[in-house]
Specification:
Layout (H helix, E strand, L loop, with lengths): L1 H13 L10 H15 L8 E3 L23 H4 L4 E7 L3 H12 L8 E4 L8 H4 L11 H4 L3 H4 L10 H14 L6 E2 L2 E9 L4 E8 L7 E12 L8 E3 L10 E4 L5 H4 L15 E5 L3 H13 L2 E6 L5 E2 L8 H8 L5 H14 L19 H4 L11 H26 L3 H6 L12 E2 L3 H4 L5 E5 L7 E2 L3 E4 L2 E4 L2 E4 L11 H4 L3 E3 L6 H8 L3 E2 L3 E2 L5 E2 L12 H23 L5 E4 L1 H13 L29 H7 L6 H14 L5 E4 L1
Helix pairs in contact: 1-14, 4-19, 19-22, 20-21
């Protein structure tokens, strides 16, 4: 049996008796159900406080780094109150859209503006500067445009400061660094049909100055404002009563901890009792540093992370040049090979990346072209997924028991859910941190802490005095809302209809996930009706090139006249039908332990009559490479099938 083979390989892997947590399929299903039941709750996705939408908590969302940058005045950056292309978002998504629009669509950097609420380039890599921060995907495939820039990452998994500075480097190389307008938010987009352009209301907020508002017109707009923007906090009694130092991990305060983004020597913690709430991917990276420097560290856990090896190491530049990047097209080839490992269930003969990501089973998120084609095939498909996944999860759980010395702590750190239910974590020091005498795991058995007092956190009646409280509680779910909600703005399209209203009722009406029938000249960046990858930067980069192609072709068709480009109603319907036809492989995400992939279990509550709308609104269920092949074939046809260009 597959299960028996998996268990045997786990034991060989450890060269020891690390068998606790290694179970057969029936026991795994029992434990998975128990873990899921702990986390199910009636308020699901609304259980968190949205810091950006709540006046009492907005200070958690503030930019702690903006004072390091000379922010250009928004009015000076729009002297004529116009731009040809406005890109909303200056993270790596917005950067790739800017590169594609400049290089492919011929838009001059002087006619392009890229705005962001942050004070600089980088998106999540601008804001996140906590100790231990690094990418969790091999940097040779994660960082975009490496072949074009010739940049060589210093480590297999680049650290945060290098990634942020690389973002700045790309902006300089492609000459749009001076086109950026920071600390600026788009409040409202309104389509002006007669003029064939967008009216955009902008507000710039610079600390210590009154807000500056301006209304501009832009012929084209791209919404590329990422998926990890808006902080969320647990709605705990007494949170605002706490008198000690407190911050969110995505707004790390080195003034409180000591150290800096370049030097994680957290000297100010040596006499401090610290609590960190959350054990997701960010916490996994920061906890070893907190454990090293804190007088005492409390790790508050609702659900354990599944933490596999990372195997971090410096880049050998000779190996990089002579082997990894030896031939043209190397990065795309490496990415294609990377994707094959978890979008088909079949391993390619050669593993170019060779990391633990390529051992994961992510088919319900990444898609599978060989997945089920009818509801009747789902039970067998689910069973096959479990057979593929169980050996790895046994290995991950076995790694905990081999590493963590205290048996009770090790038991609580074992993850009981399929790999695809939460983003897997990879780290070389995380589990070892729990062997330190100054580290205590406070497992809540799937519940929230009871309350926060003026100087402590209370869990199951136990009062734990603390000096510093850190929230590692993540962000707004990336698949909830619309592009309007992702940016906390209003988008009003044809006939005065809002995107929020139309999408909530009917779902999106896009072609390839990049243009919606009701919102002309507005280029989207997924994930709705497109695809995704564990390396989200690749996905958004592919969409940027697709948008640039569509814009170039539309300009040629318009012959120099003002135009509106959008899918036809028929083209959008046909694409939605294709997404729906491929949606079944993603069904395994329903029934997962609550997390941001299923909006804390909210997907399980979708009424039957709305399920087809949800399915046609979702991801391309045949996987990222199949999606890319489809849109490339569409471009090769050269006739812009399904797209209307109206002058």
């Amino acid at each position: 049996m597959t299960t028996a083979i998996g268990m045997a390989s786990d034991q060989a892997y450890f060269d020891g008796d690390a068998t606790k947590g290694v179970v057969d399929a029936s026991e795994a299903q029992k434990r998975y159900g128990e873990e899921r039941a702990k986390r199910l709750r009636a308020d699901a996705g609304t259980q968190f406080i949205e810091a950006s939408l709540n006046e009492k908590y907005k200070h958690f969302q503030e930019d702690p780094w903006a004072e390091e940058t000379q922010i250009k005045d928004v009015k000076a950056m729009f002297p004529d109150n116009r731009s040809e292309m406005l890109i909303i978002g200056a993270g790596f998504g917005g950067i790739q859209y800017a590169v594609s629009m400049i290089e492919q669509a011929g838009i001059s950097p002087k006619n392009l503006r890229i705005i962001d609420t942050a004070g600089g380039f980088g998106g999540t890599w601008y804001y996140n500067r906590y100790p231990g921060l690094m990418c969790d995907i091999e940097s040779y495939v994660y960082l975009p445009l490496l072949e074009e820039t010739g940049f060589i990452p210093k480590h297999r998994y680049s650290y945060g400061e290098e990634i942020r500075k690389y973002a700045e480097h790309v902006a300089e190389k492609y000459n749009f660094a001076d086109s950026a307008v920071f600390s600026t938010k788009a409040e409202k987009l309104t389509w002006i049909e007669d003029a064939k352009e967008w009216e955009v209301e902008l507000t710039q907020r610079i600390k210590g100055q009154p807000p500056t508002s301006i209304t501009i017109r832009s012929t084209f707009v791209a919404t590329v404002n990422g998926v990890l923007n808006w902080l969320k906090l647990p709605d705990l009694p007494g949170l605002l009563d706490y008198k000690g130092d407190v911050f969110h991990i995505a707004r790390w305060n080195y003034g409180i901890t000591g150290g800096s983004p370049d030097d994680p020597s957290l000297l100010k913690l040596q006499d401090k009792r610290v609590a960190i709430i959350g054990t997701g991917c960010s916490a996994v990276q920061a906890i070893p540093h907190l454990a090293k420097w804190s007088k005492h560290l409390y790790v508050v856990q609702r659900t354990p992370a599944a933490v596999d090896r990372r195997d971090q190491k410096p880049t050998d530049e000779n190996e990089f040049r002579d082997t990894i990047a030896a031939k043209s097209g190397w990065q795309r080839e490496r990415l294609r090979n990377f994707h094959q490992h978890f979008t088909t269930g079949k391993k390619p003969e050669v593993n170019l990346v060779g990391d633990q990501w390529t051992e994961t089973v992510m088919l319900p998120i990444s898609g599978n072209p060989e997945g089920p084609k009818s509801p009747e095939e789902l039970p067998a498909y689910f069973q096959k997924l479990q057979e593929l996944d169980l050996p790895r999860q046994n290995t991950v759980r076995g790694r905990v028991t081999k590493t963590v010395k205290d048996a009770d702590t090790a038991e609580k750190l074992q993850a009981w859910y399929p790999t695809w239910c939460k983003r897997p974590a990879f780290h070389d020091e995380y589990l070892d941190a729990f062997n330190q005498k100054n580290v205590t795991l406070l497992d809540t058995n799937g519940k929230d802490p009871e309350k926060i007092t003026e100087n402590s956190i209370v869990i199951e009646g136990k009062d734990c005095p603390i000096d510093i409280l850190i929230f590692a509680t993540g962000f707004r779910a990336p698949f909830s809302g619309t592009p309007a909600e992702k940016a906390n703005m209003a988008i009003i399209g044809r006939n005065g209809a809002t995107m929020t209203e139309l999408w909530s009722r009917n779902g999106p009406s896009t072609l390839h996930g990049v243009l919606d029938h009701n919102f002309p000249n507005l280029f989207l960046s997924g994930p709705w009706q497109s695809s995704t990858s564990p390396n989200f930067l690749f996905n958004v980069g592919a969409l940027s090139k697709h948008c640039a192609y569509i814009l170039t072709q539309a300009k040629q068709k318009a012959g120099g006249k003002a135009f509106a480009v959008a899918p036809s109603a028929e083209g959008a319907k046909d694409w939605g039908d294709q997404v729906l036809m491929r949606s079944l492989p993603m069904a395994a995400i329903i029934g997962c332990t609550p997390g941001y992939f299923n909006n804390e279990g909210e997907l399980d509550k979708v009424p039957p009559e709305f399920q087809p709308i949800m399915a046609r609104s979702g991801l391309w269920g045949s996987g990222i490479e199949d999606f890319i092949a489809n849109i490339e074939a569409w471009r090769n046809e050269g006739n812009m099938q399904g797209v209307e260009v109206q002058v």
